[in-house]
Design goal:
By secondary structure, the protein is an alpha+beta fold. The chain is 45% helix and 16% strand. A five-stranded mixed beta sheet has the order 2-1-3-4-5, with helices on both faces. β4 and β5 form a beta hairpin. α2 packs across α3. The longest helix has 24 residues.
Length: 224
Amino acid sequence: MSITDWPAGERPREKLLERGASSLSDAELLAIFLRTGVVGKSAVDLARELVQQFGSLTNLFAATEEEFCAIHGMGQAKFVQLQAVIEMSRRALQEEMRSGDALNSPRAVRDYLQLLLRSRQQEVFIALFLDAQHRVIATEELFLGTLTQTSVYPREVVKRALHHNAAAVIFAHNHPSGVAEPSQSDQLLTDALKQALALVDVRVLDHFIVAGAGCLSFAEKGML
């Protein structure tokens, strides 16, 4: 059955307008993005197949062009559109953090970091440099590592904090393994960075670990 034959209240677009975007399932939201299906499949059927194939929206967003286009009905044009949507979301969240206190927008910080890091196949260490009002001044990718580890040098982090005249910093790195639990090395590194930055009066507000759909906060875990 075509989506146009569905009751109006169950069609994704009409449902969104009537009940809001949060009322839609992942597949229904994706169906609105896809707009059309393929022969024998509605946009919702195709969207469900995509979610099932990749396991989650997180994995779908992290898919390479080759992986995405391997699905029947997908192509380069749809891949480009999806990347544009993801980048717009990332920039909107960054603007939200720049305009207000990052500590008052924990959801925006988490969402931004997940969009930034969850698709990376190597460990990446980044820093969000903040001013005295905890507004984000700059986001920098400081160190790039391997599949399982990266080397971080406190002296270089201090230099970048001074360069931006930052009053505080939030760190984040990813675990490509998909496990968000911090290692002993993660804890030792955080302690070393906190001590080094304290010497120049820069506070470490948090350290996040992004792993797939998970995002762990050191501050929330009482590890700072």
